[in-house]
Write a structure and sequence with these properties.
single chain, 384 residues, alpha/beta, TIM Barrel, six-stranded parallel β-sheet, 15 helices, 9 strands
């Protein structure tokens, strides 16, 4: 049978229309799911972005309005269905070398606390899983705090405890360089994982109820942490090494250990960490020239892999917005989470599984860490 060019054109238009209609239906369904779920993003660097642009002045970096720069503001958080956010109180490793890491980290805590106070109609500080549930139910965005890099405690458990009192509910054990007590994934190995003091840090975090974050640490440090910890861990913004082989991502043997530990790997959105070719080039030190740009599908591939290896109860979302220069196409800012949920629906995930991925898993881990802390304190476990 002969098919005319006009017939082919009409068929192509019909297919495009059907696909477009299907996308619209999935996106509407995704938004309904997010209305019911508690979406918790594991990592956002807005506090440092505000510091760099305006010295921490929200009068000049007013997130109440939709901004033409950055990845984050209140209108876009609302559009994205975000109900809880871990804000990073990051400071560069070089600040530890200058002896000002603790002071600057405290200033970053101050940025978060002032932001919550300034936008009190939208934000409320959360110190527990129960707080997150209560704040989300009230229609506000629960604000949690994560310390990004063990260099920020200046080798002091007392500083760690004070950070907890200020609201820190996780700490990433390293950032781009080794600490005196733990190896980073982007530095030459010095300790072979954790030192004895590093183990004390993990145990003290367990006692406090602070989540141990294994993003940025070496794979051997990840393995040591999983041997020491008595509570589930998180990787607040990491992806799957088997999909994109750069050291920032989590290898399969660690994913399997996380399954037994009960923890969660919260997938990072940085194109260079989720696109396989970009990750390979990074691993080989090839940073010249344009890097491949990732898409939503690359992020979904990482979620799929973690689900296959560790299980759907052990994956979450850790965007790294305002800390990454190149988010994937389709995931340009915090407003785009519904597109990711639509992608999960297209790949066959159920609504209940999606609710676990977008926040249920990390909320469960936070609750379990609190339970471990209560048990350890009842037993009289105390740090030095």
């Amino acid at each position: 049978m002969r098919i005319s060019g006009l017939t082919v054109l009409l068929c192509c238009c019909l297919v495009g229309t059907v696909r477009g209609d299907d996308d619209d239906v999935l996106l509407a369904r995704a938004r309904r799911i997010l209305d019911q779920a508690i979406l918790i993003d594991g990592h956002n660097d807005l506090p440092w972005a505000v510091r760099e642009r305006t010295g921490g002045d929200f009068a000049r970096y007013d997130i109440r309005r939709r901004l033409r720069f950055g990845h984050t503001d209140i209108p876009r958080l609302r559009a994205g269905g975000v109900k809880a956010q871990f804000w990073s109180v990051f400071v560069p490793v070089s600040y530890a070398e200058k002896g000002i890491a603790v002071r600057t980290t405290l200033e970053q805590f101050d940025v978060v606390h002032r932001m919550v106070a300034r936008y009190g109609e939208t934000f409320e500080l959360a110190r527990s899983a129960a707080d997150v549930r209560r704040i989300a139910a009230a229609g506000k965005i629960a604000c949690l705090i994560g310390v990004e890099g063990g260099h920020s405690i200046d080798n002091s458990l007392a500083v760690l405890r004070m950070y907890y009192k200020l609201g820190a509910r996780y700490m990433t054990l390293t950032h781009s360089k080794n600490t005196d007590w733990a190896d980073s994934c982007t530095d030459e190995p010095q300790h072979g994982g954790l030192t004895e003091f590093g183990r004390k840090v993990v145990r003290e975090m367990n006692r406090l109820g602070m989540l141990v974050d294994i993003s940025h640490v070496s794979h051997d440090t990840m393995r040591d942490v999983l041997e020491v910890t008595r509570a589930p861990v998180i990787a607040s913004h990491s992806s799957a090494y088997a999909v994109a082989p750069f050291a920032r991502n989590v290898p399969d043997d660690v994913l399997q250990k996380i399954r037994h530990n009960g923890g969660v790997v919260m997938v990072n959105f940085f194109s260079w960490f989720v696109h396989p070719e970009a990750a390979r080039r990074l691993a080989q030190g090839q940073r010249s020239g344009p890097m491949p740009q990732a898409t939503i599908d690359h992020v979904l591939d990482h979620i799929d892999h973690i689900v296959q290896v560790a299980g759907v109860e052990h994956v979450g979302l850790g965007s790294d917005y305002d800390g990454i220069p190149a988010p994937p196409d389709g995931l340009e800012d915090v407003s785009t989470f519904p597109r990711l949920v639509a992608g999960l629906l297209r790949r066959g995930y159920s609504e209940e599984q999606i609710k676990l991925i977008v926040g249920g898993n990390v909320l469960r881990v936070l609750e379990q860490a609190e339970q471990v802390a209560r048990r350890l304190n009842r037993r009289g476990d105390r740090s030095e």
